[in-house]
Amino acid sequence: MTSAPYVATLKDSTAVFKEDIFKGKILFCTGGGSGICKGMTEAMMRHGADAVIVGRKLDRLTQTANELSATTGRICIAAQADVRQPRMLKEAVEKTIAQFGKIDFVICGAAGNFLAPISGLSENAFKTVMEIDTLGTYNTIKATIAHVRRSKGSYIHVSATLHYKATPYQAHVSSAKAAVDALSAVLAVEEGPHGVRSNVIAPGPIGSTEGMQRLSSIAEGGVSRLPLGRVGDIQDVANATVFLFSEAASYITGQTVVVDGAMEHMRDFQLPYPQAVLDPGSVQKMIPGKL
Ligand code: COA
Protein backbone atom coordinates (compact mmCIF):
# COMPACT_ATOMS: atom_id res chain seq x y z
CA MET A 1 0.00 0.00 0.00
CA THR A 2 1.41 3.43 -0.91
CA SER A 3 0.76 6.44 1.30
CA ALA A 4 0.29 10.03 0.08
CA PRO A 5 3.57 11.92 -0.43
CA TYR A 6 4.64 14.32 2.29
CA VAL A 7 4.28 18.04 1.57
CA ALA A 8 6.65 20.26 3.54
CA THR A 9 5.03 22.83 5.81
CA LEU A 10 5.47 26.50 5.04
CA LYS A 11 5.69 28.73 8.11
CA ASP A 12 6.32 32.41 8.56
CA SER A 13 9.61 32.96 10.43
CA THR A 14 7.70 34.83 13.16
CA ALA A 15 6.16 31.50 14.14
CA VAL A 16 9.65 30.27 15.04
CA PHE A 17 11.89 33.27 15.82
CA LYS A 18 11.13 36.14 18.23
CA GLU A 19 9.64 39.20 16.55
CA ASP A 20 12.18 41.70 17.95
CA ILE A 21 15.49 39.97 17.15
CA PHE A 22 16.48 42.66 14.62
CA LYS A 23 15.10 45.67 16.52
CA GLY A 24 17.43 48.65 15.96
CA LYS A 25 19.17 46.92 13.03
CA ILE A 26 19.46 48.33 9.52
CA LEU A 27 19.30 46.26 6.33
CA PHE A 28 20.63 47.41 2.95
CA CYS A 29 19.23 45.23 0.16
CA THR A 30 19.97 45.44 -3.56
CA GLY A 31 17.23 44.02 -5.76
CA GLY A 32 14.72 44.55 -2.94
CA GLY A 33 12.06 46.09 -5.16
CA SER A 34 10.50 42.77 -6.11
CA GLY A 35 10.61 38.99 -5.95
CA ILE A 36 12.84 37.04 -3.60
CA CYS A 37 14.75 40.04 -2.23
CA LYS A 38 11.54 41.86 -1.43
CA GLY A 39 10.45 38.78 0.56
CA MET A 40 13.80 38.65 2.36
CA THR A 41 13.48 42.33 3.28
CA GLU A 42 9.92 41.92 4.51
CA ALA A 43 10.94 39.04 6.78
CA MET A 44 13.78 41.09 8.31
CA MET A 45 11.36 43.97 8.90
CA ARG A 46 8.82 41.65 10.52
CA HIS A 47 11.54 40.92 13.08
CA GLY A 48 12.18 44.61 13.79
CA ALA A 49 14.74 45.79 11.21
CA ASP A 50 14.42 48.99 9.21
CA ALA A 51 15.50 48.73 5.59
CA VAL A 52 16.78 50.45 2.48
CA ILE A 53 15.93 48.78 -0.81
CA VAL A 54 18.07 49.53 -3.84
CA GLY A 55 17.27 49.11 -7.51
CA ARG A 56 17.10 50.74 -10.91
CA LYS A 57 13.40 51.61 -11.08
CA LEU A 58 12.52 54.28 -8.53
CA ASP A 59 8.75 54.10 -8.99
CA ARG A 60 8.65 50.35 -8.31
CA LEU A 61 11.08 50.71 -5.37
CA THR A 62 9.04 53.51 -3.80
CA GLN A 63 5.84 51.51 -4.15
CA THR A 64 7.48 48.47 -2.53
CA ALA A 65 9.03 50.58 0.25
CA ASN A 66 5.63 52.07 1.11
CA GLU A 67 4.00 48.66 1.02
CA LEU A 68 6.65 47.08 3.28
CA SER A 69 6.46 49.98 5.76
CA ALA A 70 2.67 49.62 5.91
CA THR A 71 2.63 45.84 6.34
CA THR A 72 5.44 45.60 8.92
CA GLY A 73 5.20 48.88 10.83
CA ARG A 74 8.94 49.46 10.31
CA ILE A 75 10.66 52.06 8.11
CA CYS A 76 11.64 51.13 4.56
CA ILE A 77 13.10 53.68 2.17
CA ALA A 78 13.96 53.45 -1.53
CA ALA A 79 17.38 54.33 -2.96
CA GLN A 80 17.79 54.33 -6.72
CA ALA A 81 21.02 52.79 -7.99
CA ASP A 82 22.25 50.52 -10.75
CA VAL A 83 24.65 48.12 -9.03
CA ARG A 84 26.94 48.42 -12.07
CA GLN A 85 27.56 52.06 -11.09
CA PRO A 86 29.77 52.41 -7.96
CA ARG A 87 28.95 56.11 -7.69
CA MET A 88 25.21 55.44 -7.51
CA LEU A 89 25.76 52.75 -4.86
CA LYS A 90 27.90 55.16 -2.86
CA GLU A 91 25.03 57.65 -2.94
CA ALA A 92 22.58 54.96 -1.84
CA VAL A 93 24.86 54.16 1.10
CA GLU A 94 25.13 57.88 1.95
CA LYS A 95 21.34 58.11 1.92
CA THR A 96 21.18 55.11 4.28
CA ILE A 97 23.68 56.63 6.69
CA ALA A 98 21.92 60.02 6.59
CA GLN A 99 18.62 58.32 7.48
CA PHE A 100 19.73 55.60 9.90
CA GLY A 101 23.38 56.27 10.82
CA LYS A 102 24.60 52.72 10.17
CA ILE A 103 24.31 49.47 8.20
CA ASP A 104 24.16 46.09 9.98
CA PHE A 105 23.09 43.71 7.25
CA VAL A 106 23.57 43.64 3.48
CA ILE A 107 21.75 41.48 0.96
CA CYS A 108 23.49 41.43 -2.43
CA GLY A 109 20.52 40.36 -4.49
CA ALA A 110 20.32 42.41 -7.69
CA ALA A 111 20.51 40.05 -10.67
CA GLY A 112 19.69 39.75 -14.35
CA ASN A 113 18.75 36.67 -16.30
CA PHE A 114 17.34 35.33 -19.53
CA LEU A 115 17.56 31.97 -21.27
CA ALA A 116 19.98 31.80 -24.20
CA PRO A 117 22.52 29.30 -25.55
CA ILE A 118 26.17 30.37 -25.80
CA SER A 119 25.79 30.43 -29.57
CA GLY A 120 22.98 32.98 -29.19
CA LEU A 121 24.66 35.15 -26.54
CA SER A 122 26.41 38.29 -27.72
CA GLU A 123 29.56 39.41 -25.94
CA ASN A 124 27.52 42.25 -24.51
CA ALA A 125 24.77 39.90 -23.28
CA PHE A 126 27.29 37.76 -21.36
CA LYS A 127 29.03 40.86 -20.03
CA THR A 128 25.76 42.46 -18.93
CA VAL A 129 24.83 39.56 -16.63
CA MET A 130 28.40 39.30 -15.29
CA GLU A 131 28.29 43.02 -14.58
CA ILE A 132 24.93 42.98 -12.80
CA ASP A 133 25.47 39.80 -10.77
CA THR A 134 29.21 39.60 -10.12
CA LEU A 135 30.52 43.13 -10.45
CA GLY A 136 27.30 44.39 -8.83
CA THR A 137 27.99 42.20 -5.80
CA TYR A 138 31.59 43.37 -5.64
CA ASN A 139 30.51 47.02 -5.95
CA THR A 140 27.93 46.56 -3.19
CA ILE A 141 30.51 45.02 -0.87
CA LYS A 142 32.96 47.85 -1.57
CA ALA A 143 30.31 50.51 -0.92
CA THR A 144 29.16 49.02 2.39
CA ILE A 145 32.09 47.19 3.99
CA ALA A 146 33.35 50.05 6.18
CA HIS A 147 29.91 50.40 7.75
CA VAL A 148 29.38 46.64 8.13
CA ARG A 149 32.77 46.33 9.85
CA ARG A 150 31.80 49.09 12.24
CA SER A 151 28.59 47.28 13.23
CA LYS A 152 30.19 43.79 13.08
CA GLY A 153 27.43 42.92 10.69
CA SER A 154 26.78 40.33 8.06
CA TYR A 155 26.28 39.73 4.32
CA ILE A 156 23.99 37.39 2.42
CA HIS A 157 24.57 36.96 -1.31
CA VAL A 158 21.75 35.54 -3.40
CA SER A 159 23.19 32.93 -5.75
CA ALA A 160 21.75 29.85 -7.51
CA THR A 161 22.26 26.11 -7.91
CA LEU A 162 22.55 26.28 -11.73
CA HIS A 163 26.32 26.06 -11.79
CA TYR A 164 26.66 22.93 -9.62
CA LYS A 165 26.07 21.03 -12.85
CA ALA A 166 26.15 22.32 -16.40
CA THR A 167 22.83 24.00 -17.14
CA PRO A 168 22.36 24.65 -20.86
CA TYR A 169 21.11 28.16 -21.78
CA GLN A 170 22.52 29.52 -18.51
CA ALA A 171 26.26 29.96 -19.19
CA HIS A 172 26.18 33.65 -18.32
CA VAL A 173 24.27 33.27 -15.03
CA SER A 174 26.18 30.13 -14.04
CA SER A 175 29.50 31.94 -14.54
CA ALA A 176 28.30 34.99 -12.67
CA LYS A 177 26.91 33.05 -9.70
CA ALA A 178 30.02 30.84 -9.42
CA ALA A 179 32.01 34.03 -9.05
CA VAL A 180 29.58 35.36 -6.43
CA ASP A 181 30.04 32.17 -4.39
CA ALA A 182 33.82 32.60 -4.54
CA LEU A 183 33.59 36.25 -3.59
CA SER A 184 31.49 35.45 -0.54
CA ALA A 185 33.93 32.81 0.69
CA VAL A 186 36.91 35.16 0.39
CA LEU A 187 34.93 37.93 2.09
CA ALA A 188 34.18 35.57 4.99
CA VAL A 189 37.88 34.75 5.46
CA GLU A 190 39.16 38.31 5.02
CA GLU A 191 36.49 39.96 7.17
CA GLY A 192 36.02 37.30 9.85
CA PRO A 193 38.76 38.84 12.01
CA HIS A 194 36.84 42.14 11.78
CA GLY A 195 33.69 40.44 13.09
CA VAL A 196 31.90 40.33 9.72
CA ARG A 197 30.17 37.20 8.39
CA SER A 198 29.37 36.40 4.76
CA ASN A 199 27.11 33.63 3.50
CA VAL A 200 25.34 32.64 0.30
CA ILE A 201 21.74 31.56 -0.09
CA ALA A 202 21.23 29.48 -3.22
CA PRO A 203 17.53 29.18 -3.98
CA GLY A 204 16.34 26.39 -6.24
CA PRO A 205 13.26 26.99 -8.40
CA ILE A 206 11.01 29.33 -6.42
CA GLY A 207 7.33 29.68 -7.28
CA SER A 208 5.86 33.08 -8.18
CA THR A 209 9.19 34.56 -9.30
CA GLU A 210 10.00 35.96 -12.75
CA GLY A 211 12.37 33.08 -13.42
CA MET A 212 9.77 30.42 -12.64
CA GLN A 213 7.12 32.23 -14.66
CA ARG A 214 9.46 32.04 -17.63
CA LEU A 215 9.83 28.30 -17.13
CA SER A 216 6.26 27.66 -16.04
CA SER A 217 5.26 25.78 -19.17
CA ILE A 218 8.18 23.43 -18.50
CA ALA A 219 7.78 23.09 -14.75
CA GLU A 220 4.07 22.27 -14.76
CA GLY A 221 2.95 18.89 -13.52
CA GLY A 222 6.16 17.65 -11.90
CA VAL A 223 5.40 18.57 -8.28
CA SER A 224 4.61 15.04 -7.13
CA ARG A 225 8.16 13.89 -7.86
CA LEU A 226 9.78 16.63 -5.75
CA PRO A 227 11.39 15.32 -2.53
CA LEU A 228 9.38 17.67 -0.28
CA GLY A 229 6.21 17.63 -2.33
CA ARG A 230 6.21 21.26 -3.49
CA VAL A 231 8.37 23.88 -5.20
CA GLY A 232 10.09 26.47 -3.06
CA ASP A 233 8.35 29.61 -1.87
CA ILE A 234 9.82 33.07 -1.36
CA GLN A 235 9.01 32.56 2.34
CA ASP A 236 11.42 29.60 2.42
CA VAL A 237 14.26 31.89 1.32
CA ALA A 238 13.09 34.60 3.72
CA ASN A 239 13.16 32.14 6.63
CA ALA A 240 16.74 31.12 5.79
CA THR A 241 17.65 34.81 5.68
CA VAL A 242 16.29 35.43 9.17
CA PHE A 243 18.25 32.48 10.53
CA LEU A 244 21.55 33.41 8.83
CA PHE A 245 21.40 37.05 9.95
CA SER A 246 20.36 36.05 13.48
CA GLU A 247 22.79 35.46 16.34
CA ALA A 248 21.82 31.80 16.20
CA ALA A 249 24.09 31.68 13.11
CA SER A 250 27.00 33.58 14.69
CA TYR A 251 29.46 30.72 13.95
CA ILE A 252 28.23 30.19 10.39
CA THR A 253 30.20 32.06 7.77
CA GLY A 254 31.69 31.35 4.35
CA GLN A 255 28.86 28.87 3.72
CA THR A 256 26.18 28.32 1.11
CA VAL A 257 22.70 27.41 2.25
CA VAL A 258 20.83 25.72 -0.56
CA VAL A 259 17.09 26.31 -0.27
CA ASP A 260 15.67 23.85 -2.77
CA GLY A 261 14.11 20.94 -0.90
CA ALA A 262 16.87 18.63 -2.26
CA MET A 263 15.81 19.26 -5.87
CA GLU A 264 19.43 19.81 -6.88
CA HIS A 265 20.18 16.17 -6.21
CA MET A 266 17.64 15.00 -8.76
CA ARG A 267 17.79 17.82 -11.28
CA ASP A 268 17.12 17.24 -14.97
CA PHE A 269 17.60 19.88 -17.62
CA GLN A 270 14.20 21.52 -17.82
CA LEU A 271 14.10 21.92 -21.59
CA PRO A 272 13.88 18.84 -23.87
CA TYR A 273 17.44 17.51 -24.33
CA PRO A 274 19.19 17.32 -26.77
CA GLN A 275 16.49 18.81 -29.01
CA ALA A 276 16.83 22.21 -27.29
CA VAL A 277 20.53 22.29 -28.16
CA LEU A 278 20.32 20.84 -31.64
CA ASP A 279 17.32 22.93 -32.69
CA PRO A 280 16.88 26.05 -30.53
CA GLY A 281 13.90 27.03 -32.69
CA SER A 282 11.97 24.05 -31.36
CA VAL A 283 11.92 25.50 -27.82
CA GLN A 284 11.60 29.15 -28.79
CA LYS A 285 7.95 29.31 -27.71
CA MET A 286 8.96 28.12 -24.22
CA ILE A 287 11.45 30.97 -23.78
CA PRO A 288 9.79 34.35 -23.74
CA GLY A 289 12.25 37.15 -24.51
CA LYS A 290 12.95 39.96 -22.13
CA LEU A 291 10.32 40.42 -19.44
N1 COA B 1 18.63 36.46 -25.31
C1 COA B 1 19.85 36.84 -25.77
N2 COA B 1 20.40 38.06 -25.50
C2 COA B 1 19.69 38.90 -24.69
C3 COA B 1 18.42 38.56 -24.17
C4 COA B 1 17.88 37.27 -24.52
N3 COA B 1 16.67 36.88 -24.09
N4 COA B 1 17.98 39.60 -23.40
C5 COA B 1 18.95 40.56 -23.46
N5 COA B 1 19.97 40.14 -24.24
C6 COA B 1 21.17 40.88 -24.60
C7 COA B 1 20.79 42.14 -25.37
O1 COA B 1 20.50 41.84 -26.72
C8 COA B 1 22.05 42.98 -25.19
O2 COA B 1 23.09 42.53 -26.04
P1 COA B 1 23.44 43.30 -27.45
O3 COA B 1 23.81 44.70 -27.06
O4 COA B 1 24.56 42.52 -28.03
O5 COA B 1 22.18 43.22 -28.28
C9 COA B 1 22.51 42.62 -23.79
O6 COA B 1 21.87 41.37 -23.46
C10 COA B 1 22.09 43.63 -22.77
O7 COA B 1 20.68 43.71 -22.77
P2 COA B 1 19.89 45.05 -22.37
O8 COA B 1 18.45 44.72 -22.22
O9 COA B 1 20.28 46.15 -23.32
O10 COA B 1 20.58 45.40 -20.97
P3 COA B 1 19.98 46.04 -19.71
O11 COA B 1 21.13 46.43 -18.88
O12 COA B 1 18.96 47.08 -19.99
O13 COA B 1 19.17 44.84 -18.98
C11 COA B 1 18.73 42.64 -18.13
C12 COA B 1 19.78 43.62 -18.70
C13 COA B 1 19.41 41.29 -17.89
C14 COA B 1 18.20 43.15 -16.81
C15 COA B 1 17.58 42.51 -19.15
O14 COA B 1 17.98 41.69 -20.20
C16 COA B 1 16.29 41.97 -18.60
O15 COA B 1 15.40 42.76 -18.42
N6 COA B 1 16.15 40.64 -18.33
C17 COA B 1 14.93 40.02 -17.83
C18 COA B 1 14.53 40.47 -16.45
C19 COA B 1 15.48 40.01 -15.38
O16 COA B 1 16.59 39.67 -15.62
N7 COA B 1 15.01 40.01 -14.14
C20 COA B 1 15.80 39.53 -13.04
C21 COA B 1 15.50 38.12 -12.78
S1 COA B 1 16.75 37.36 -11.82
Automatic annotation (TrEMBL):
GO terms for cellular component: peroxisome. It catalyses: a (2E,4E)-dienoyl-CoA + NADPH + H(+) = a 4,5-saturated-(3E)-enoyl-CoA + NADP(+); a (2E,4Z)-dienoyl-CoA + NADPH + H(+) = a 4,5-saturated-(3E)-enoyl-CoA + NADP(+). The keyword NADP applies. InterPro entries: DECR2-like, NAD(P)-bd_dom_sf, SDR_fam. Its EC number is 1.3.1.124. It comes from the Eukaryota. One of its GO terms (molecular function) is 2,4-dienoyl-CoA reductase (NADPH) activity. Keywords: NADP, Oxidoreductase. GO terms for biological process: fatty acid catabolic process. This is 2,4-dienoyl-CoA reductase [(3E)-enoyl-CoA-producing].
